[in-house]
Amino acid sequence: MGSRQIVAVLQLGGVFTTDDDGHMTYSGGEAHAMLVKSDLKRMVEFHADSETTDIYVIKKVDNRVKSSVADSSAPADSAIVGTTPDGSKRQKICASWENTITGVGQVFEGPKEFRDALHKYAIAHRFHYRFVKNDSSRVTVECTDEGCPWRIHASKSSANQEFMIKKVVGSHTCESETVKSNRLASQKWVASVIKEKLRDSPNYRPRDIANDLQREYGLSLNYSQAWRGKLIARKELYSPHEEACNQLPWFRDRIFATNPGSMATVEALEGSKFRFFVAFHASLHGFENGCRPLLFLDVITVKPNKHWKLLGATSVDGEGDVFPVALSVVDDESQENWHWFLEQLQASLPMPGDITFISNGRSGLWDDVSLIFPDSYHGYNVNFFIEEFKTKLDDSWSEEVKDIMVEHLKDAIYSCRVDEFNHYLDLIKAESDKLAEWLLETKPERWSDALFKGSRLGQYTCNISETIAEWIPNRYELPVVQLLDTIRCNLMEMIYTRRESSNTWSEVLTPSANQKLQEEMNKALSLSVVCSTENDGNNNVFEVCDGSVYTVNIDTWECTCRKWHVSGIPCCHAIAVFEQTDQNPVEYCSKYFRRDYYRMTYAMSINPIPDVIVPPASTDVTQSMGLQPCPILARRQVGRPKEKPADPRIAIKRAVRCSRCKGYGHNKATCKVPLTT
């Protein structure tokens, strides 16, 4: 537009005429010119920077349906007659809805049927109403517009108990401009209208629902209303269990087709129950070639989902971040389900031998892990163990004493030498013999670095539950297939993001391993090194003075402090030896902290499954594998229900009022007020 100004020409009082070639011209009336600085300028620029832009302001046409209603004095067969709405307002409307309410004497099966008919009638004739009385025996409704006298009453007939319209009062005098059409579209009504279309088109989007209802019924819905209506319709069409029964076999086959080398199993159980296991090829490859042989076993609770539990096996990469390996969908965290999960995991892993498992030890996991993975090691999840320890503390102790006891336990957990472990255990025993005995009963070789035989490499806990919780929307319950595919999508994105990030690294070790190594190098600056007198001719054994004397063996990668063995990163004593012998400490770090191993962890990609949301599979497919397309009864959740019932102690009750004396606190039968004449 340059520096030119925009002039808006406003014409009024004339008429539009259409030429033979279809062009529209305006003639007659008045014309006024005015400068426009911003709004019209943006509009002109939007339309390809055209020289002129025509804006037509047309007077709003009242499409209000005028209807007359019959009084109770009219004959029983009198009807309520209404005119058809203007087609320019709504392109389609169910004409039959205009006469769902015909007048006094009309009979319905019950109050519900009457309310449904009234709702359709209000939509067709575009008015709002409120319930004055609404119960199983009578329904009285009036127009919400102030001053509009329209009112209708229906109740059970005393003769044959039919639900009948008894009275219709007045006619509508309200104006259509005051009607907000979105109030007429309740969630249940939207669900009833879209149910059949949703059955045929599971991808029916809320925005499409809103557009269709606007076009077909003249109702303006926002996105939230359409989404809630779809949610109700979806639940009415098929329960989450039925969807799972129908779609899981299909989902398993799609995993095989799109991600070759993956492991997926769906198993039918008694009572129409099932369980599902999946381990993608990219996860299995990454665990075998890049991750340390460490798996955390944990149950993952998806908050909005009350029907399923996720059992997970999760490793950690060279940065200490979670790396999900396998997931299973089950109905509860039982020993039977855990046993089945471990069997599927054992069949999936290409290296099922020397693996260290970490868990909370519940649901019989100690026995199942040792049975299915006989060469493995099994330890406690440290965070869980510390929380369990806190429950054993004496209530009579002060908070300061409790904190000290927890610190003693942490020192006992992270102590790498047996003598240090015994020292901190004695400190706990000095305060409570009972607590020390409980710690010994839990088998310290499952949680103390000084006694644990497995290889944790400094990883004591895993936050996979928090990670999965961030991936799953907590506003509503997802069908199980969409739940699994949501996790798959996030895994796919996680693998890609971390792979791209690692491509920018220039160091041999991962950033976190480099930081730990640098901290040990700083500690080694003040240490002195001498050759050991007990090397038996081996020049690779040294003694390092650090208050105490520690022996370092370069050949076996060992130090008597045991921190090198426990963490996989050379301790300060070993680094002091490397400095003296002019060796690179990086070469003595565990391979699982190397950049190349990290990249191997994320070398493979999880491929998309493009058509996840599909109609349920046929009954023949589900029945052929023993799954019945019928709902599974949801298990009652442990603990108090989340929705608290009303407290009877604070409930507000209506006072009893006597119908004879109008007093409060008693009724007519117990009234003692003398009658007055």
TrEMBL record:
Domain of life: Eukaryota
Domain SWIM-type, residue spans: 550-582
Alphabetized GO MF terms: zinc ion binding
Pfam family, one: MULE
Keyword Nucleotidyltransferase: no
Keywords of the record: Metal-binding, Zinc, Zinc-finger
Protein name as it appears in the record: SWIM-type domain-containing protein
